[in-house]
Design a protein that fits this description.
Elements (H helix, E strand, L loop, with lengths): L1 E6 L5 H13 L4 E5 L22 E4 L9 H11 L5 E2 L8 H9 L4 E4 L10 E2 L8 E4 L2 E2 H4 L25 E5 L1 H5 L5 H8 L19 H11 L8 H7 L4
Parallel strand pairs: 1-2, 1-9, 2-3, 4-5, 5-7, 8-9
Antiparallel strand pairs: 6-7
Length: 242
């Protein structure tokens, strides 16, 4: 099975909503890792609080960088998204105190952002955190921006043979801005970084034939029947994890 995941990363509402519309048009649910939009000084970060959770899974994307006040980070973001089911940390900052904090607050899972060459079976952390599972991310669009030879085609995706295996879950990671602007390289990303919270509609995937990250997403959605897509928590329920 396949889980499409998005790290919202303080993207604007317009960009997030356009990407979600693509998924909705294929009746595909996504797992949305939401940041604390109150921490963005621009005031233009997307807030998914109270919306989209009926069609998609809401999870957390806490930012533990440059702080040791992990409880404060957890409590602030959970106040915004009290119905979140799991988490994946911003920039991969994690460790035992953060994992314990998430599990103790009732989150069912953590998704490691590190990409492993082989398929990694979801597993419990240890006996202390019972029924709290760790998943891994098999692919990142942001990583491929630094790979000049990447085709932005499903033929280059890892673990393709497992997509239709209901006993396995392959987690793919995307970012709304990279998809919205159909980026292909880190040069394109860097050029837009200074205007991250602004929306250039004329440069979006709606105004040209996609040949980058959005092309890849469309190919994935066209390739698989909708029943092979799931959210992380739904897969855990199906697999009997909780």
């Amino acid at each position: 099975m396949l889980a499409i995941t998005l790290d919202v990363d303080w993207a604007p509402d317009k960009i997030v909503d356009e990407v979600i519309l693509v998924l909705d048009s294929y009746h595909v649910p996504a797992t949305l890792f939401c940041t604390n939009f109150l921490k963005d000084l621009s005031g233009n970060s997307s807030s998914l609080a109270g919306r989209l959770h009926e069609r998609h899974e809401i999870a957390l994307h806490p930012n533990f960088q440059n702080t040791g006040a992990y409880d404060e980070v957890w409590d602030a973001i959970l106040e915004l998204y009290p119905y979140a089911k799991g988490w994946r940390s911003h920039n991969g900052v994690t460790g035992w105190p953060m994992t314990c904090g998430g599990a103790q607050r009732g989150l069912r899972y953590e998704v490691y952002p590190s990409v492993f060459h082989n398929y990694v079976v979801p597993c419990q952390v240890n006996r202390v955190l019972r029924r709290h599972y760790v998943f891994t991310t098999a692919f990142w669009d942001s990583h491929m921006l630094h790979e000049p030879g990447f085709s932005w085609s499903t033929s280059d995706l890892p673990h393709r043979k497992l997509f239709e295996d209901d006993s396995k879950l392959v987690v793919l990671g995307f970012h709304p801005n990279i998809l919205y602007y159909d980026m292909r390289s880190h040069t394109e990303y860097d050029a837009r970084k200074s205007s991250y919270h602004e929306v250039d509609v004329t440069a979006s995937f709606r105004h040209h034939r996609p040949d980058g990250a959005m092309k890849l997403l469309y190919e994935i959605l066209e390739m698989l029947p909708s029943q092979h897509f799931t959210t992380i928590s739904s897969y855990g329920t199906y697999a009997g994890f909780w």
